[in-house]
Design a protein that fits this description.
Helices cover 19% and strands 39% of the residues. It is of the alpha+beta class and 255 residues long. The chain folds into two domains: 94 residues, Beta Barrel (OB fold (Dihydrolipoamide Acetyltransferase, E2P)), CATH 2.40.50.140; 108 residues, OB fold (Dihydrolipoamide Acetyltransferase, E2P). The strands form three sheets. The chain has a five-stranded mixed beta barrel with strand order 4-5-6-8-7. Strands 11-12-13-15-14 form a five-stranded mixed barrel. A two-stranded antiparallel sheet has the order 2-3. The longest helix is centred in the first third of the chain and has 35 residues. The termini are far apart.
Length: 255
Amino acid sequence: MSFKKSIGILVVSALAIAFILTGNIACSKKAGDGAAAPVVKGEQAAPVSQEMGIKEGVNDITGTVKSALGKYFYIVQMPGFDITLSGNFDAAMLVGKDVKVKAEFHRDRPSLLVAQSIEAKEGTAPFAIVYTASETGYPQDFFDQKMRTEFAELKITAITKAADWEGKGKVKIPGRFIPASEKQVAAIAILDDKDKETARVIVDNMTEYTNYYLKKLRLFDKFWFYLTIKESVPANQRAKAKEIFHADIVFAGLY
């Protein structure tokens, strides 16, 4: 009876050890899965983001380009990061392709990676270098997330009340973008809580980074627009198209 009891204790102990080992392996695998996408190898310091694996300095990134415009693009495996390049290279040629990017990251620009070189893969062909940086630094039209605090929310109570917007400078306002056409200049339709258009802002200029974001977020139709207010539309012309003032857009996002 004592012998059987000893065997029982040994079996229970073995099962307990196996359970602990299995749990440790599962936890290690889970942690590894979180760091494995995207494939990133940093050259300096500890990771800034353990989940992404991005480190201060130059990183090697592998992924597939999802959307691009001008000097900006992003890859599926790097949500939350935009990648920028310099010169006359049009990033649109990378859409849908697998790429290997050497990109530099700095803490002062937490959502931006600056490409140093790019290798792209076309079909079954091997990776080939398609881009090497010709300049250094950040693009002038990049909208840093920290800049959001400089833009106060603008509320329009009536198209006749110019005091709502005149002298306000940098503001943010929710609305729907209206692209320019043969019959219409580019504009922002300002909407009320029921999505009814109450006024329009005439868009004189918008940055490439803004255009890139509108394309990147193409599944959405309403955005927060960050803009600089310019001159008002003359009072006797506002009622016709509900246009109230001119503006330059510096960014468009979901918040």
